[in-house]
Amino acid sequence: MIERDIKFLPNGRLEVTIPICLKHDGRKTTLLIDEDCGKPLDKENLSPLQKALIQGFQYQKYLEAGKGESVTELARKEHIDRAFLFRALSLVNLAPDIINLILDGREPKNITLTRLRKGFPEDWEEQRHYFGIK
After folding, report:
1. φ and ψ of 24, to 5 deg
2. Which residues contact 69 (CB under 8 A, 6 or more apart)?
3. Is residue 82 exposed (0-12), middle (13-18) or buried (19+ Cβ within 10 Å)?
4. Cα(89)–Cα(128) distance, rounded to whole angstroms?
């Protein structure tokens, strides 16, 4: 059941909060009302795979914001190995549904950080086939 929060405001109006997710598939953004939406990640109990995925998106954001002219420069500024940075950045190329599975902690057992670091197909359909996701 979707958890909705209804508050009566002093001015007589209602404030209704409904957990939603925005899903972007490369062409359009869709509004989803889903039971899994609105659940924040528990920062204290992230898996190594979740941490690596989040790092990848943070590094991508840093590059897009101009924190580094290149991966080499960003790696130097962040005091990390360039190869580590490349591996972290590659994770942002996972299919959105695979990313959601990882963030929700529901990824198949065959999606491991070790396996991802060895490489995976660029095409999202090929990724799903590679990891056995239907």
Report:
1. -110, 125
2. none
3. middle
4. 19
Contact 100, 76 (CB under 8 A): no
- 8 Å CB contact between 88 and 71: no
Banded model confidence at residue 62, pLDDT cuts 50, 70, 90:
confident
- Please state the φ and ψ torsions of residue 14, each to the nearest 5 degrees: -105, 140
List pLDDT tens digits, range 107-128.
Answer: 999 999 999 989 999 999 999 9
- 94 is written with which tokens? 């996972």
Burial 35-55 (b: 16+ CB within 10 A, else e): eebeeeeeeeeeeebbebbbb
**Cα-based angle 108, 127, 98 (whole degrees, multiple of 5):** 50
Among candidates 44, 37, 50, 49, which has minimal Cα distance to 3? 37
The C-alpha atoms of residue 109 and residue 95 are separated, in whole angstroms, by 17
The Cα 96–Cα 37 span in angstroms is 15
